[in-house]
Amino acid sequence: MKKVIDNINVNYEFSDIKSDITLVLLHGWGQNIEMMKPIGDKYLDKFNVLILDLPGFGESDEPKTPWTVYEYADFVHRFIESLGIKKIYLVGHSFGGKISLVYASKYKVEKLVGLASPYCKEITKLSFKTKFYKKIKKIKILTPLANFMKNKMGSTDYKNASEIMRGVLVQTVNLDINEDVKKISCPTLLVWGTLDTAVPINRAYELEKMIDNAGVVVYEGATHYAYLERLNNLIRVLNSFFNC
Question: Rounded to two decimals, what is the model's pTM?
Fold first, then answer.
C-alpha cells in the first residue's frame, strides 16, 4: 500500500484485525519491510500489524532534506495518527531502534522492543587515512581531494547512499540520545547478540540502567541480526512480553 504524508509517498503494509493494539515495526538502515515481516507475520492473528519502508528506503520517497532521528520519529507518529491508531507496541531494529527510542521518549507507547538499538556515537580509533582526511578537509584548496577521500573511506552504507541519505546517516551516527532515553517510561525489552560488532552488547546494559522499566535478552553467538538468527526463541520471549 502507498500513502502520502507531508508530500512523501510511503510504502507500507497494514493488517487491521480491529485489535486494540497495533504492532509497529521499524527496520534498520538500508533495509525495508521484508526485514521485519518475520516478526510481523507471527502476530497477524493477535494484533493489527503495521510495517513501513521508512522514508529513503525500500519503495518510500526520500525526505526532502537530511532528517535527524527526531524528524523520523515525528514522521512515524504522524503516519500512525493518519491511520487512526491509538495504542502501539513498538519494535525497532538498529536505525529503526534508535528512532523507536526517541519515539517512546516523546509519544505514548504501550510496550517497546529495541533490537540492537544504538543510542550514542561509537568511538573508534582513527586510522592514519582518517586523521589525514580530517586535516586536509580544513584546507580549502584541497577540498576536491578531501571529497575524493571521503567517498573512498566511507562505510558501505555511506557509499551506497544518495547525498540526502548520506546526510541522514552522518547525523544519525553522530547523535547521542542519552537524555531522551531517560524519559522512556513504558515497559522496554532490549534484545542483543553477543557478537554484534555494529552496536556492542555493553550498550544494552547501559540502556537497561537508563530506562526505568527495562530488561535485556542476550543471545550468545548471535550478531547484529540476532532477532532473525534466533527468531523462534525471540517470538516466545515476545509472546511473554506482550502477554499473548
Answer: 0.86
